[in-house]
Amino acid sequence: MSTIAENLKNIKEIVSETAIKCGRDPHEITLMAVSKTKPMEMLIEAYNAGMRLFGENRVLEAVEKRKELPLDAEIQLIGHLQSNKTKASVGNFSCIQSVDSLKIARKINKEAEDQGIVQKILIELKTSEEESKSGFSSEDEYYESLEEIMSMNHIEVRGLMTIAPFVDDDVIVRSSFKKCRLVFEKTKKMYPHKKLTVLSMGMSGDFPLAIEEGATLIRVGSSIFGTRY
Ligand SMILES: *Cc1c(COP(=O)(O)O)cnc(C)c1O
User: Fewer Cβ atoms within 10 A, N terminus or C terminus of the chain?
Assistant: First the structure.
């Protein structure tokens, strides 16, 4: 078995154990392989081991990789989307997870309208104090923008995404996930007719905590493909 296949197997075991331990069905949790900066051979290796969902943070890199992946694989955008890359993104990702402002949502909606498609997105919420993190920077800003985003005809909001702070303190990491989950639950109550099913949180260093806090999609890179340099 290749290293990547072994890593995937190990991670899936941890996902199952963690889910069962906290009373969740492991099938509720989707594993995304974050392949940013990694060469195509590694994505193919993961594909051959059964992986069908990949995450990339650079639009042009992702578009190139998309061309070389079999058609039944999906790539989603997980990195900040600059407005001048909107055109290249819409229609090329099965989901844009990193919608972090009303402005970019409007741009995506407009571009999707021009293409005659509906683009699936997640709204990214900043749940950490770290300056470097992207996302709607406060719950107020999020709720103020929500109605307009939800009413856009060429965007389908599927849920929320967050990145926890890179700290060693589980209490801080957990509270970041918890915050995102509470906003997710509240949003589902506000929009019961929308298909809000995706809570994207948890990376290599913190995905078990994220599962305990309700994640339905975890984004794992270095634990599958090795450290990025
Ligand atoms: C890079 C990245 C990941 C994966 O990080 P690892 O620590 O390598 O698992 C997950 N989510 C986002 C948004 C990322 O940019």
Answer: C
Q: How many domains does the chain have?
A: 1
Q: Could you give the angle at the alpha carbon of 122 between the alpha carbons of 211 and 192, nearest 5°?
A: 85
Cα distances (Å, whole numbers) of residue 92 to 43, 59, 85, 88, 130: 17, 9, 11, 7, 30
Does residue 49 surpass a pLDDT of 90?
yes
Give the pLDDT confidence score for residue 130 in this predicted structure: 77
Is residue 219 in contact with ligand 1, taking CB distance under 6 Å? yes
How many percent of the chain have pLDDT more than 70? 99
- Which residue puts its alpha carbon closest to atom 6 of ligand 1? 221
Q: 163 CB less than 6 Å from ligand 1?
A: yes
Locus of tokens 């849920």: 159
Q: Is the CB of 18 under 6 A from ligand 1?
A: no
Q: Which domain holds residue 198?
A: 3-225
Output the pLDDT for position 28. 97
Residue 228 has pLDDT above 80, yes or no: yes
Q: State how beta strands 217-220 and 30-34 pair.
A: parallel
Question: At 101, is the secondary structure helix, strand, or coil?
Answer: coil
